[in-house]
Amino acid sequence: MSSPMITIERFLLSQQPEYAKGDLTTLFYDIALAAKMIATQTRRAALLDTLGYEGTTNVQGERQRKLDVYADDVMFKMNDHTGRLCAMVSEEREDWIQIPDNYSKGHYVMVYDPLDGSSNIDTNVTIGTIFGIFRTLDDKNRGGLEDCLRSGRELVAAGYIIYGTSTMFVYSAGQGVHGFTLDPEIGEFLLTHENMRFPEKPAYYSFNNGSYRNWDPGVQKYSDWLQSNEGPRLSQRYIGSLVADFHRNLLYGGIYGYPGEVSLPNGKIRLLYEAGPMAFLAEHAGGYGSNGVESLLDIKPANLHQRTPVFIGSRELVTRAEEFIRKEKSK
Ligand code: AFP
What we know:
By secondary structure, this protein is of the alpha+beta class. It has helices at residues 8-15, 23-43, 45-48, 66-77, 145-148, 217-227, 242-252, 271-284, 315-329, and strands spanning 53-57, 63-65, 85-90, 97-98, 108-116, 127-135, 155-163, 167-172, 178-183, 188-193, 204-206, 235-236, 254-258, 288-290, 310-313. A hairpin with a 3-residue loop joins strand 7 (155-163) and strand 8.
């Protein structure tokens, strides 16, 4: 354990710039509380009969699992009444979420994927929650759709919670990426990974190679290069949970990719509440996130649930992917 013992609350207070002390700090604390509730529920899911499907589908046409619905509800209920947010966007809801009339509206917008990788839930594989935070564009006119449809460059903070062998809260508010581990005995997140950076020499690449035949030639050639003698000689690790694959690659160096496919030209990952926040974290850890052509942070979504190809992780590996893709496109 790190020494001295630093709780997430203490760290947040010491790190936030003066303007953000208060609302942004407590917003993180609210998210951390939601994370503890989701962690408790996921750990006991089989015992509480919360594995399996809810019997509904979300806006992406995906069948919702009971834990997807639970996590979405917790993220919403921990944040709707606090007066810190003026709007939210969730993967699980078609429209953006306005703050109920009986609560006051704050100055921040939170976008989130309540449970990423949820197809892994029933097999006890690591899953996560992703969030991003924007400041409202217009203090007098808060919480409209234009406050939500923003590029990743406009994020003031982003983070994820990873529900693995331990539960971790990882975030950046623009001053480094910091990780906290939940001590279940005392119910607190404690600082364990200060100032996380992608290591210089990467170790892993994480693509679903089962989809190789459906990728563009540029992505196929990049994948061939990764595995060739001329390549960087990485091991392949793919969990199929963006948060988990990203987290491992952040600690050991590497690249996660979810390219476009023949029947899914923009891939599967959502720009606003998955790719954008993860690209924000990558850049603040010395890495990079791209759609294969440009930075994921520079793309303004045209709609809330827009998808994008994703290549994210160690900067050099991602820029090499862009080179392969550009070269093939220009032929
Ligand atoms: P689910 O939330 O439906 O499990 O999707 C997770 C995800 O968006 C991302 O976290 C994974 O990396 C990717 O999809 C896995 O997709 P494939 O199974 O097609 O590789």
